[in-house]
């Protein structure tokens, strides 16, 4: 149980509707001074029944209603609603959620509501007895509660410990027992009449009840078995699901750890990679630098070698040129001799060439003519062969087509015959199926008629049930309303009767005289002997005023004895009216002249015994009653202010001109009590008769409804059976119609196929005829072509033989001419060459001599260049060695980085594999959990569908020891069906009737024994109070010692009973020894020590009797910071069992809170609630 929600509207500084939702744990409410935060704890105290406005920091009830602001008008009422979660059933009531509402109006009226229904303050107090919740309990702890513990008044402190030890309920029970004794005697007279009436009703109800009980017993057992079966399956699922959830959490943690590790490894890898890349760039640059040096060195070496080579080449060139000059001179002489011999050979060969060219020309012309003839014949033969092959291919293609056409023709003939057979069969099926449809439709018509008739019966039955249900609902509502009114009237009547009997509203002296039956001649007070209609009550009350409490006596002696009694008992003063001496004082309205018509003389508007006429006329005979104040003033003017006047609203105009009027507090109803009691008695009799009549009507209607439902079940069963037959018939007809449609479709398809076959057949036959004619034509052309090819082949062979012979002769002459031309060409070429060579040789010799001179100068320059290049090369080689050394160092370092990167990469991959495996496992586990959830939902749905129960409701039926048998469940279901219809209301009706029967049977004997029984009960209660107080006090005392050490950081605290002989009335002594000090009475401690000691006691009480919720209103305000933090930490420990709502402005308490609300007053006199975080709350409360 915990405080769920607080709703304020119009209460103090909260004019607007304000909802504050609370959760388990610790909630802090903070705000600047004067913001209205303490109004929240005042609201809780007020709604729980606080009657003392001073305790709520006010003077009168109106002070709790919003008084208005500069921009907002005052409100006429206020209300506070407190919602408590009672799902654990700690409060013994049927509701899982309780909403207590209190509403107050400016006229002083106050109302209480419990879950929306009006109730009494007493009901609220009884509801929370010994729960630790209440206006005076330790569920609301403010500085005043701390003061009560620290109070020097023993009764104040004792009250706190009585509530804490749980003995308040015994005191209440004792008082209740005494009241019950009185009430029981008043009921004795009507027991016998009721008993006889109940006896007539009980036997018929018993038979119905036994049948219903059997039904409920089976249903209850079945429900118990099935619900427990469902619960066990759900429990099994929950247990396994819980393990899976733990595994999921562990898996998620591992995955998160793995992912975090992956991020770390990747970052490390990237860092290494970045450093490695930087190093690679440096190595690359180093390599490029070394390569550039090497290239320069190589270039230098190449240049040196090139220059050296050039120098050597030049030297060799000079030597070669000198040798060449000598060779050229010898060659020139030889060439002159060769030229002469060649010219002689050319002359001989030129003559022979002319003869061969003439013979070759003649032979070539003859060969050319023969070759042209052969080519023409071969070309003609090839063309004829190609034509014949084309003809044969065309014939083969046409032959293949003919075979295909002939096969198609045969297939079409066969298919034509098959189609005719299929068409006949389909037409036969259509005929047979149509007959079946007609038969089925006839049967369907009969069933439809039956279905329509039974539908009308069900509709009539449903209308009757609805009509009866509406009547039952209206009757039940009327009965409930009437019973509520009856209870209300009886309660109110009882209050007025008790007020009348106890003389409530009378002064003490009047009460004592009226109660003392030993005094003789006491007729009663004036208010008791007169009756007045409601219309004149205010006028008469105002006129009589205090005289209503005057006591009428038989004579002066009786009055004297009563006065002596008052003096002796010191009970105050009373005015007596002895009947034998009191004289009337009556005005005659006929003598009064005024434009205003009075209602009458006050004494004439009453009813009373004639015995008291003198008294009545003496008190009211001179008072005139007028309609309103305006008429009264006019009447007074007309009568010169000589007559006492009373208005219907209670204003009084006295002789002499004084006027009394305005608003007065509700009086004690001294005049109206009798009238009100009589009115309530009449209403109670009317309602009782009405309820009895309506109960009888309701019973008859419920019986009619049961019969109607039984009739409806039978009709619905018949209807379902007929409807099933209709559906079957319609399905069968539809199936047969579909078959006919299918047969017709088949026939249409077959007809279309025949048309297609007929068209294709004509086409195929015409194609066959044309193909055969074409084949004959091709055969004829092919034979003619073959004969022509044979003739041309003979001509070609003869021509080729002649051509071959002549060709050989031509080729021989041609070869001889070619050889001769080649010889001539070679000789002419040699002649030209020798002449050219001789000219060139002379030129070359002169040129070489000049080149030798230039080459000698170049050789000398090459030697100088070689020395310069060698020096540059030596410098570059030194630079190359140094660059190589630096590069090698970096390569070694790069190798180390590469190894580290490889290792890191492997580690990342290993971790990724592990995370992937974990994710796969997590997915499988989660899928399993979803299956469990689905199964669990299935059981919950079954439970709700079958028994209209939620899981929480079903859990109340849980029995782990119950043996569940499916065989028993099936058997119970059969038994339940066999019982048939039952009247479940009969159980409650019989129970109520039997309870009344038993009650009235035993009450007479009980009443005779009640005094002895109640006396014994009171003694037992006192005994139990002592035992429970001692046990609980010892527990609280031990808790106090432990809590004291924790909050003080050491020291000792003790609680002792001052008078152990009178435990129930004894004072409680508190002693404390803070760390490093001597044991002292609490009154000798410092202010902070006192406050902390009182807090220790309150916490000790809460530990002993954990209250569902506890509101702390700045009780830690006097503590220093260290003790506030200890206070906050200890609150956390206690919040496991108790919900705490702390109104505070201390940081330590805020830090302990799980939820923080701020109270702000942005507009003067109007508070608002906002939700805050810790830092916001500290700023808000003005801490930082």
TrEMBL record:
| MF-aspect GO terms | ATP binding; ATP hydrolysis activity; DNA binding
Q: Which Gene3D superfamilies match?
A: 1.10.287.1490, 1.20.1060.20, 3.30.70.1620, P-loop containing nucleotide triphosphate hydrolases
Superkingdom of the source species: Bacteria
Alphabetical list of Pfam families matching this protein:
SMC_hinge, SMC_N
Q: Where does it sit, as one GO cellular component term?
A: chromosome
Q: What is its main location?
A: cytoplasm
One GO biological process term: sister chromatid cohesion
Q: Which residues form a coiled coil?
A: 167-201, 234-492, 677-830, 859-921, 990-1024
Q: Where in the cell is it found?
A: Cytoplasm
Q: Where's the SMC hinge domain?
A: 520-636
Residues at which ATP binds: 32-39
Q: Which residues form the signal peptide?
A: none
InterPro entries referenced in this protein's UniProt entry, alphabetically = P-loop_NTPase, RecF/RecN/SMC_N, SMC, SMC_hinge, SMC_hinge_sf, SMC_prok
Keywords from the UniProt entry: ATP-binding, Coiled coil, Cytoplasm, DNA-binding, Nucleotide-binding
Q: What is said about the domains?
A: Contains large globular domains required for ATP hydrolysis at each terminus and a third globular domain forming a flexible hinge near the middle of the molecule. These domains are separated by coiled-coil structures.
Record's subunit section: Homodimer.
Q: Which NCBIfam families match?
A: SMC_prok_B
Please report which protein family the annotation says this sequence is part of: Belongs to the SMC family.
Role, per record: Required for chromosome condensation and partitioning.
What protein name applies here?
Chromosome partition protein Smc
| Organism annotation | Peptacetobacter hiranonis (strain DSM 13275 / JCM 10541 / KCTC 15199 / TO-931)
